[in-house]
Amino acid sequence: IAMAQDMLISGRAERVVVVAGDNASGETLLPWLGSGFRALGAATTKAAVEDAALPFDKRRSGMLLGAGGIGMVLETELSCLERRKNCANNFDIKARLLATQYSNSAYHGAALDRKHIASELKRFLDDVELIHGICKAEIATHGVYFSHETCTHASSASSCSGNEIAALRAAFGDDLLSKLLILNTKGFTGHPMGVSFEDVTAVEVLMRQTVPPVPNYKVKDEYLGDLNVSKGGPYACRYALRFAAGFGSQVAFALYATAQYE
Predict the structure, then answer these.
(1) 101, 191, 224, 225: which could form a disulfide with 124 (CB 3.0–4.6 Å)?
(2) Measuring CA to CA, which residue among 178, 227, 183, 176 is closest to residue 203?
């Protein structure tokens, strides 16, 4: 998605179709990926989904592998306006992609580097404010956050949510973080590795002004502190902040806005 935005901004394309698919939990890959994550101690061994899919919950004990596919069409505003003019059936713009950033952390072989996430998130938010005039307080108050949280075990030293929330707290501060509504899709889909369900869900949330709940969340993790975890339902929001991390090792951010963003 970030590469597509680069192509649009640089004028190399007016429209880009982004497609992603992965079958990490299928018959072919599961024996390899499943055993690898078990060797790292990162995969859950719980038999029931409701005991395993526990984003941000103190009971979390490991990630679940998933599978799926997504597709997104990104285009310049001029291209979109021209297409609407020539299209017999009118259509609505679902959302706007304001900013993206991706960088190499050279660390995510086994765990996320919270200091690097924090420094990159601060850099991203500073650029957003400089270029678009949107401050952190505006994002926290009128936005939602799509987490990378994979439900890895509740360790203060190395859990995915522990590192992620620590980076958020460093970038936003306690007061603003308490206002930012936190969402998660992997509690529904598992971790589909190369597929970003979060981005397509962010677009739908901004368009529909409705948020999904964080599934199975019941027990607060004191180490994570006070979090504004989504219970689901109607929610007025203007922005969706997305964080992703992957083997390689990269960390990435994206900021979406409603179609009516000025």
Answers:
(1) 101
(2) 183
Mean pLDDT of the chain: 93
Query: Which stretches of the chain are DSSP H helices?
Result: 2-10, 30-40, 49-52, 77-86, 114-132, 136-142, 160-172, 174-179, 186-189, 197-208
Which CA distances in Å does 194 have to 33, 44, 67, 152, 200? 13, 20, 9, 18, 14
The two three-digit tokens of residue 32, written as one number: 């390899």
CA distances from 208 to 34, 60, 233 (A): 36, 30, 10
- Condensed to tens digits (0 to 9), the pLDDT of residues 117-152 reads 999 999 999 999 999 999 999 999 999 999 999 999
DSSP letter for each residue of 148-202:
--------TTT-HHHHHHHHHHHHH-HHHHHHSEEE-SHHHH-B-SS--HHHHHH
Return all residues near 70 (Cβ < 8 A) that are at least 6 apart: 19, 20, 21, 195, 196, 197, 199, 200
Range name among 82-86, 141-145, 164-168, 204-208 with the lowest pLDDT average: 82-86
Residues 46-81 pLDDT 10s? 999 999 999 999 999 999 999 999 999 999 999 988
- In 3D space, the residue among 167, 177, 176 whose CA is nearest the CA of residue 123 turns out to be 167
d(CA 47, CA 207): 36
